[in-house]
Every structure is written in C-alpha cells, then in structure tokens.
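Exercise 3.2. Students should predict the tertiary structure of the chain below and write it as structure tokens, then compare their answer with the key that follows.

Predict this chain's 3D structure.
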Amino acid sequence: MTLKTGWYETDSRFIPGHYQPATLIDLALSRDIDSHRLLRGTGLFHEDILAGQTRLSPQQFLALIGNSRRLLDADDSSFLFGQRLLPGHYGAASHALRHAQNLHHALDTLVQQQALLSPLATPRLLVDEKHAYFYWLDSCGAGDQWRFLLEASMTSLVSMSQWLSGQRLPWACSFSHAEPRYVEQYWVHLGEQTEFKRPMDMMRISRDFLTLPWPGASATAGQVARQEAQGHINQLGFSSSFLDCIYRYLQTHVREAPSLEQAAQHFAMSPATLKRKLQKHDTGFQHQVDLVRKHMALYLYQIKGLSNEEVAEYLSFNDAANFRRSFKRWTGSTPRLIRQLFDAR
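Answer key:
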C-alpha cells in the first residue's frame, strides 16, 4: 500500500495482522478469551489473521487493544504484551533489531523502522553528556489506550535490551500519571527506579550503556536486514504518521509559533481539512502546539541547562508570568519545581 501523502493516518490499513496484533491476540487466546469476542467491532476474523494477508489500520489495532483490555481485565496485560513485542517476528526489521551491535544501534533501528516496529507509538531518542532519553509520541490518537501502549512500549525495551545485552540494564522510567494501584507490575517489569507524576513519560539510562557491545550480534546480518527493512518502508510510501509530520513541522518552527492557517498551507490543505484530520486523530491544533512547546521547554531545561528567562525567550514569551502559567498547564508543575527536579538528579 502506498499513500501519496507520504504519511499514514488512523484509518490507513498497513499493519500486518500477523505481526504486533497477532502477539496481542495470542496473549488473549492463551487466557481462554474467545476470538470472536476479542475481534468484535474490529472488522477482523481470526482466520484472516492466520492466513497472513490481513492488514489493519491503527484504528482497528486500537479497537483490538480496547477489547483485549476489557476481556482480559488483568493488571499485567500491557506488560506481558510488551515482553512479547521486541525484537518480534516482523521480518527484516526484527532481524535488524536482533543483530543490533549495541543499545544505540537498537534504539536507532526502532526510530528508523518505527512504521514497522511501533506503528502506534513513535519512538524518539535524545542524548546529552550523561544520559540517553527515550520517549514515545502518540502516532494516531490512541485516546484511552495510550497508557496501555506506554506500559507495553517501555516493557518491550526493558525486555529486549536485557535479552540482547545479557544483563538487566538500569533503565529509569518516569510516567506523567499518578502511581496506579497496580504499581507492583511496574516494579516487576520496569524496575524499582520507576517514578510517577513526572513532567514526561520517558526512559533514561546512562550513556555509558549505549556503546557496550552486545554478544551474539552479527554486523553483516544486521546491516543487510536494515537495508531490507528500509526497502519495506519505501514500498509503503511513508515512514511516519500524520501526527508525526505535524509534530516535526511545529518543532522546526517552535520559535515562530505558526498558526493553523500557516500549518495548513505548509501541508497543502485548507485550515478546515487540517482541523478535520486532527479531530480524526483525537486531537487539535492547539494541543499539538502545546505538546511541542512543552517538550522543547523540558529539553532546554534538562539538556541545555537554560534558565527560566532563557527558555521563555526561546519560546517567544514576552511575559514571564504568561510563560509560567502556560508551563504549568503543559506539565502540572512550575518551572522552578521542574528545575529542582532536574538539579536533584
């Protein structure tokens, strides 16, 4: 399937049913969930998944996740799903992960092959002098399924890196939501360095672990697999989602704070069409603007070490009080508290 737009949307059918969706289906079936109930409302049949030809849209995949959560009704579902996700059995992209020479190569592969390996949650990597930071963006408007996806995504990275490195890596995981009643699942699957009510959903690790060689990796096999996986991306005609493209545009122009009309012009569509597309993905233009500005502010604080005044100026806030109000709306905390949090690490 090739999209002329160069991105995929929530109703674009391109996710092989026998890849990540089948992993969730198998988990549910292992707990005696009836396949017809599991797939109800998705427009899918188990026989089609088994045939290996079915392609799901993100919308259908999210509906499957919703059904699974309801029918499994278990605190560990997202974590068990995550443990099964990576490297996975997804052709060349999984083979490239399997033969990553170190953590940095694996993270780069996840980012580059996102449409194949993580179609619902877009991974991002940042590195400073001391740490590597890994986080995910909502690719298609996950809504109520976003926490499930976050838990699964973080678990998949912890599990994969432990298997391929031969040791449990000291990941520190932070979540923006409050500590849940099933917090023990986080400790078991993500480690005890898990924090809640933080400004951002993110994983952090010392950059020293990025380049430690992983045993069992084949540099030749990995390079060939990455090339083959990139060929699959080229065949699809896209490597990222519509929301990813919006995010990148707003990030590039974060200091200018572009209007809806300017963004629509950039994407060669009317403002009304852009609004409809955003609504289809369970979001709005101002929400996307705030998300990008929040991430940029946190980046400038934590990685660049800028002061409150410098961050406000960078984001084109002329009034410091207005910046503080906006920042608290984005993160739930004041700039001063965020700086104290970062300085304590």
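Discussion points: The chain has two domains: 15-206+220-236, 242-343. The beta strands are 15-16, 55-56, 121-127, 131-138, 172-174, 194-195, 202-206.
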